Amino acid sequence: MNLVRIRALAKKEFLQILRDPRSLILSLAIPVLLLVLFGYALTLDVDNVPMVIWDQDNSQTAKHFILDFHNSRYFKIIGYYDTYQDLVWKIDTGEAMIAMVLPKDFSRYLGSGQPAPAQFLIDGSDSNTATIARGYISSVIANYNQHFFAHAVAGVTIVNPQPVSFKPRPWFNPNFESMIFIVPGLIVVIIMTIAALLTSLTVAREWERGTMEQLVATPVRPNELVVGKFLPYFCIGLFDLILSVIMAKFVFSVPVQGSVALLFALSSLFLCGALMMGILISIISRNQLLASQFAILATFMPTVLLSGFRYPIWNMPAAVQAVTYLVPARYFIVIVRGIYLKGVGIRDLWQQALFLALFAAAMIFLAIRKFKKKVA
User: Fold this and answer.
1) Residues 156, 226: one domain?
2) Residue 30's CB: how many other CB atoms inside 10 A?
3) Which residue range is the domain that position 212 belongs to?
4) What is the pTM of this model?
5) Are residues 289 and 207 in the same domain?
6) To 5 degrees, how large is the angle CA 67–CA 69–CA 70?
7) Which of 33, 52, 315, 318 has the fewest Cβ atoms within 10 angstroms?
8) Is 24 a domain residue?
9) Mind listing the pLDDT tens digit for each residue in 300-354?
10) Is residue 14 situated within a structural domain?
11) Under a CB-based contact definition with an 8 Å cutoff, are residues 342 and 254 in contact?
12) DSSP letters spanning 151-196
């Protein structure tokens, strides 16, 4: 090896990197972003599990029992309700993961020495988190039984104390199968990443091949050019969606519990936004390599890390939770899992659908506005 030539090549490579500030920023930003997300935001510990409560007994004894959950760092009580319909709605919309139901005679059971039933409805769609949450419930109840049963509660001496009877009832995924949770989320990752990555190369490819000058010389308007490039990839995206749904059912045994028509309608809305986002990236970058890198950075990483695909959003720090509101996949993953696992309809998903519509409209507007029929 000739050290002189190696030094000259290394110097040339450093100069090229310094002369391309966009690639330099990407090369520095990606490791920093990964370290921050994995090291700070995406902890595997499960804390602050959102819980709703229906206390039918409404006694001091029941309040003592609920207080143990309130004081635990593993649970976050977000509301008290008076009907099963309210509890079901909170779980269906994803606002709560656990619903506690205390029967009317909860305190009487404890006072008479009988096992006191307490029902816990658990959203089992996220099998790993649900399993951990169920263990936390058992731990809190065991602690309550150990510390409070040997004493008088609210001035009532307990005779022949019996433990609280813990009756978990997992919903949507009773066997806690991880595949049922992962496959619908993978559909979101596939659509978002593939759609944006494919279209991110379209306009940039024209500039690199020198054919954009020919298009600029034609009477085609910017909006016509954008839509013309959009339609073929929209068909490809729909094919990918159909293929994913078929594989989910026949390969992974994960059927759609809700409306297939609603799934495809809202998926098309998300697909429009993702495709137009890729076209916007292609228009801005004018370079295929840079466009593909930026598309992966802007779609794959946020979708996997900040959408709730693998890590619960409510378990992230408040600052990171605020950032997730800007990630379109956050809303689409609620839609897909809601239709797939819970069978919910547009009444429970209209807020997510509204954001996807705004996302698609914004991407279409920016892509058309940003494209100019100019060579330089």
Assistant:
1) no
2) 14
3) 178-370
4) 0.68
5) yes
6) 60
7) 318
8) no
9) 888 888 888 877 888 788 888 899 999 999 999 999 999 998 888 998 899 999 9
10) no
11) no
12) S-BTTBPPSS---EEEEEEEES-TT--HHHHHHHHHHHHHHHHHHH
